[in-house]
Amino acid sequence: MLITLVVANQKGGVGKTTTALNLAASLSAASRKVLLIDLDSQGNSTTGTGEEKNEGLHSLIDVMLNESFSLEEVIEETKYKFDLIPASPDLISAEIELSSLPSPTSILKKKLTDMQKSYDYVVIDCPPSLGMMSVNALRAASKVLIPLQCEYYSLEGLASMNKTIKEINEKTGENIEINGILRTMYDSRIRLSREVSKELEEHFSEQLCDTVIPRNVKLAEAPSFGMPALYYEPEAKGTLAYLALAGEIINKFESS
Amino acid sequence: MLITLVVANQKGGVGKTTTALNLAASLSAASRKVLLIDLDSQGNSTTGTGEEKNEGLHSLIDVMLNESFSLEEVIEETKYKFDLIPASPDLISAEIELSSLPSPTSILKKKLTDMQKSYDYVVIDCPPSLGMMSVNALRAASKVLIPLQCEYYSLEGLASMNKTIKEINEKTGENIEINGILRTMYDSRIRLSREVSKELEEHFSEQLCDTVIPRNVKLAEAPSFGMPALYYEPEAKGTLAYLALAGEIINKFESS
Ligand SMILES: Nc1ncnc2c1ncn2[C@@H]1O[C@H](COP(=O)(O)OP(=O)(O)OP(=O)(O)O)[C@@H](O)[C@H]1O
Ligand SMILES: Nc1ncnc2c1ncn2[C@@H]1O[C@H](COP(=O)(O)OP(=O)(O)OP(=O)(O)O)[C@@H](O)[C@H]1O
Ligand SMILES: [Mg+2]
Ligand SMILES: [Mg+2]
Do A42 and B92 touch (CB under 8 A)? Predict the structure, then answer.
């Protein structure tokens, strides 16, 4: 059974890419077949995996714009056990390109349903916005994971994610929900971190992941070598936290 | 002479809002007349100043869509010596709304030129994207300031900012340039921070600001009280760094 796990948050720099990439690596280390999709024109998930941005013949946007193209055309293998659909420069203008099509925000969902290649997980890294690509991802999601720093602006961002998801559900009649809220870059020595974390436990206890990702510089160093942390520093605190998160996701999302 | 200082970076969470807000407060503390404009639908500069998002009759987008409206209609006073054009919920759909107008990316520049009220500085906080609002801001800029964390993905983001600015210049015949690169959340104890900072000194020494903003939790606490750091914790390391940055900007940008 395919689980499409969307990692999203309009707030920038909260650890979306670090989560998507290291979760893809950890889930594939647990013998799951995983496809990572980079929907951000910055292409951080792509370079964090050691790959180049797609400058080739067809990109994901071409596949979304053409009925006859399928996702298999843009899937690449990586050096690590998971596959990747890399970012491409045309993602910047996706908003304008897709808006002229009929029901532009449900295209990704349709393409994923039509995909022949079989995976256990599709993990989608979103840009820091609530534009066309992020809404496409949210509508294609079977589970939504929101990484967030334990800081004030991030907490504010959570309220607006909730509002946006409600609006999409009203417009489309679907029932997208936030399945996991993940605390990232957590530092228990900082009072602000502890206070915001406590507030999350009070108001969002059901959705809050048990796993907390600590601030750990190895997670920030690994991308400069083009590798997930599991292959850069397997014993680091941050690496082990993402393995624990993969375990939590397998337990919570595979049985429901 | 009005200086329009645009704080931009497609990379998320690098300190754009923290820089725009604290620079507005520091420049107005140095007796400059300052207007802060929040172009990000998240509205962090707006709430960081203790204001509400604009749910009123007219918003900045209304002013940009209507020839007859002027910026004065959406300028608000704040509790601190600078004025503010707050974010509004319709910023999310700015891309689609503006794209049907003739030369949609030069509207903000025109509205700023027509503005009657006189300021020394207009400081613009951009969203983490290179969409319609950010390009509007870049084309309206007299000076462009790029905050960036000393980490790998941020360094990558700098290369793509440079590329995008070159593309805008080719299309419009203008000469937008990066006037300042500001190191934020700098921690000299972390090797990655030191290495990235050294790389910036080697490749971007001309544009690199002398002022470096240290990681300082007071800068992250202040927004939860709706106040710039100068009014929350005037002696904090982060607050003093933004005062020093205001001094550096006054010296470098007012004389040229
Ligand atoms: N747990 C962590 N400990 C230390 N550094 C981290 C951690 N998680 C992420 N980082 C670093 O923090 C920065 C922001 O993380 P990342 O780029 O993953 O966030 P993002 O939400 O994907 O950003 P964007 O909004 O730009 O897409 C990166 O430089 C990353 O290497
Ligand atoms: N020098 C600093 N020291 C400690 N924390 C900081 C510093 N600068 C910013 N922060 C905190 O880091 C987070 C990211 O900063 P900020 O929101 O200003 O970045 P941004 O680039 O505006 O993000 P976005 O891309 O979402 O607009 C915020 O929670 C902020 O309070
Ligand atoms: Mg990212
Ligand atoms: Mg911001």
Answer: no
